[in-house]
Design brief:
Alpha-Beta Plaits, alpha+beta, adenylate cyclase activity, 15 strands, Adenylate/guanylate cyclase domain-containing protein, Nucleotide_cyclase, Adenylyl/Guanylyl_Cyclase_3/4, eight-stranded mixed beta sheet, A/G_cyclase
């Protein structure tokens, strides 16, 4: 599995800093992505890299081996041109602090995950240069709406964004605003929202709620904004947001079935 480490202002001979790692693996027509915050200790041949929290994962089903190969090549090329260095060796489990303890704090938030539908086909159609420009405009539009809605960006992927909000209505309104904004770029997105507790550990956010939100987003079709029952229950009674029952769903890797709702309008 090719792995990459964001360099940022640091160089590979610096020890004791936090960064971000990114991994990609292709199996047949599917591409498996893994990314997250890491801590770098040591330098040179003795350098060790540790996940500071459970990495996020995403599966891209490209339909054909050829498309998967193209997606993988493009993903690797983007990382190599965005201040990442190839990383050899394993990324180990989280490194504990010197006293063996962790500074943990619980928090509650509405989580939003948005990604582009059919991004691989779109990128292949437009070519690298035009696609890079479109992606830049896409992220600018997303971040503009996040700022207007007071959302907090947590992490980005090749074409996705994960963010948190203090109120569910703010997250839903931001999602619909993003959907309309990116349509002018010829893009369709899908969005999932879930509300739940997560742990803040060493400045990083960890929790099952993020994984549930990922699964909710995976159930959305192009142009859809889906929310979990937890989000619906937190909406104020006087909220003008209209939700339509989207049925009960089994979310991959998550226990029990989950009632989802589609945002109308």
């Amino acid at each position: 599995m090719p792995k990459f480490l964001r360099i940022g202002l640091h160089q590979s001979n610096v020890s004791g800093y936090t960064s971000k790692a990114w991994c990609v693996r292709r199996v047949g027509s599917a591409v498996f992505l893994k990314w997250g915050a890491v801590e770098v200790q040591g330098a040179g041949k003795g350098r060790k890299v540790y996940w500071t929290r459970l990495p996020q994962e995403k599966t891209i089903r490209c339909g054909t081996v050829e498309r998967a190969q193209d997606y993988t090549k493009s993903a690797i090329a983007r990382r190599r041109s965005h201040d990442y260095e190839p990383l050899t060796g394993a990324i180990s489990a989280r490194c504990k602090s010197a006293n063996g303890s962790a500074d943990l704090k619980q928090a509650l938030a509405t989580i939003l995950i948005v990604d582009i539908v059919g991004s691989t086909a779109k990128a292949a159609k437009l070519g690298d240069a035009r696609w890079t420009k479109v992606i830049g405009l896409y992220y600018a539009a997303v971040r503009k709406e996040l700022k207007s809605s007071r959302g907090k960006e947590v992490v980005t992927t090749g074409d996705g964004v994960l963010a948190t909000f203090k109120a569910p209505a703010a997250g839903i309104n931001c999602a619909t605003a993003i959907r309309e904004a990116v349509r002018t770029l010829g893009l369709d997105i899908r969005v999932g929202l879930h509300a739940g507790e997560y742990t803040i550990s060493g400045g990083e956010m960890v929790g099952l709620a993020f994984h549930i939100c990922t699964r909710v987003a995976a159930k959305a079709r192009a142009g859809e904004v889906l929310v979990s029952r937890a989000v619906k229950d937190l909406l104020a009674a006087q909220s003008q947001i209209r939700l339509r029952d989207h049925g009960s769903h089994q979310l991959k890797g998550v226990p029990a079935r989950w009632r989802l709702y589609r945002v109308e309008g």
